[in-house]
Amino acid sequence: MFDEKSWKAQASPLLKLEDDIWQLRLPLPYALDHVNVYLIQGDSGWSIVDTGLNISKARALWESAFAELKIGPNDVEKIVVTHVHPDHFGMAGWLQERFSSAGELVPVIVSAEDHGMFIKIWDGLKSSDSQAMENMTRFLILNGIPAEYAKAVTQGTMSTGVKTFPHPTFTPIKPNGTIKMGNRTWDVIHAPGHADGQIIFYDPADRLFLSGDQILMKITPNIGYWGDTEPGVLQRYLDSLAQLRTYNVRIGYPGHKWLVGDWQQRIDEMFAHHDERLDTTYEAVKSNAGITADGVSQAVFRLGELNYHQSRFAIAETLAHLDLLEGQGKIGREEVDGVWRFSTVGDSAI
Ligand SMILES: [Zn+2]
Question: Which pTM does this prediction carry?
Answer without folding.
Answer: 0.93
